[in-house]
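Students often ask why inverse folding is considered easier than folding. One informal answer: many sequences map to the same fold, so there is more than one right answer. In these notes we will look at a single instance of the problem. The structure comes first.
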């Protein structure tokens, strides 16, 4: 039973970090109806910029973080201005293809600035088991996993409250419901888009720092965003609480499946089980746990 809880806790902690990545997708999709395929590239660019500023220019941690944050906010604003705004009222597939092109551009720009070598990132938190938890309960949980999950959880909670309780959040919900109606009541649509893309850039920075510290800052970070797809399918593409719940479900299920089902299917199940789970979920509830049903009359 102790081993079960150890695996479950590890999965839930990973799930919180998946939620953080998924949150970037949700924010942009809610505001503009665009599935930002470039979110993974933004995570890679943010982490590489942060570690490059520290290692190549010897900037202190906090200054490098502030400069990287400014770069990500600027990237988000420029993306809205140059890519999204000219394509307003275009078919969704056009916007989706634009974000795919943006992905390759950001990836190339990041490696052009900072190189393609794998870089280590140390946030000052040791990846060792928590002693009292191991001694008292026999559960080996990493300090770094707890730290990462706490940072991700706090950020997700703050953003959820911000978009639920503030004036900007109410404007975002209005824009998400109906762009034309929001414009009619005086909501500055383009300003809301800039804010959301800027916040998505900040989320990408935090996610990039956490995942980069765990796995190294490398091109593979772009694939972290793919793990957010099952999270979005389970939770719903427009729901911040859905991103949280979906991340926890995916994180816990993939770890448990790897341990208890993996030996019977040859291992490696952790890499594909979330997608199978999402596919099965689509058959039952296509809109996700917290998504709204859409009825099209023809």
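Output (designed amino acids):
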């Amino acid at each position: 039973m102790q081993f079960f809880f150890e695996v479950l806790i590890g999965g839930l902690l990973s799930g919180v970090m998946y939620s953080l990545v998924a949150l970037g997708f949700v924010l942009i999709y809610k505001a503009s109806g665009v599935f930002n395929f470039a979110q993974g590239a933004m995570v890679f660019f943010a982490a590489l910029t942060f570690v490059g500023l520290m290692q190549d220019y010897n900037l202190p941690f906090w200054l490098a973080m502030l400069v990287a944050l400014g770069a990500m906010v600027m990237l988000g604003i420029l993306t809205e201005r140059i890519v999204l705004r000219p394509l307003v009222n275009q078919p969704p597939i056009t916007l989706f293809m634009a974000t795919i092109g943006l992905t390759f551009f950001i990836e190339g720009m990041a490696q052009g600035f900072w190189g393609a070598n794998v870089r280590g990132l140390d946030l000052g938190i040791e990846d060792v088991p928590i002693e009292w938890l191991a001694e008292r309960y026999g559960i080996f949980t990493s300090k770094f996993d707890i730290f990462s999950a706490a940072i991700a959880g706090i950020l997700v909670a703050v953003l959820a409250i911000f978009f639920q309780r503030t004036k900007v959040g109410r404007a975002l919900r209005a824009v998400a419901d109906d762009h034309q109606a929001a414009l009619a009541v005086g909501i500055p649509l383009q300003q809301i888009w800039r804010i959301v893309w800027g916040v998505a850039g900040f989320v990408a920075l935090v996610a990039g720092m956490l995942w980069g510290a765990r796995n190294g800052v490398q091109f593979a970070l772009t694939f972290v965003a793919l793990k957010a797809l099952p999270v979005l399918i389970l939770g719903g593409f427009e729901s911040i609480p859905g991103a949280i719940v979906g991340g926890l479900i995916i994180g816990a299920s993939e770890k448990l499946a790897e341990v208890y089902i993996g030996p019977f299917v040859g291992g490696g199940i952790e890499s594909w089980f979330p997608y199978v789970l999402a596919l099965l979920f689509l058959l039952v509830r296509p809109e996700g746990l917290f998504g709204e049903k859409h009825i099209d009359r023809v």
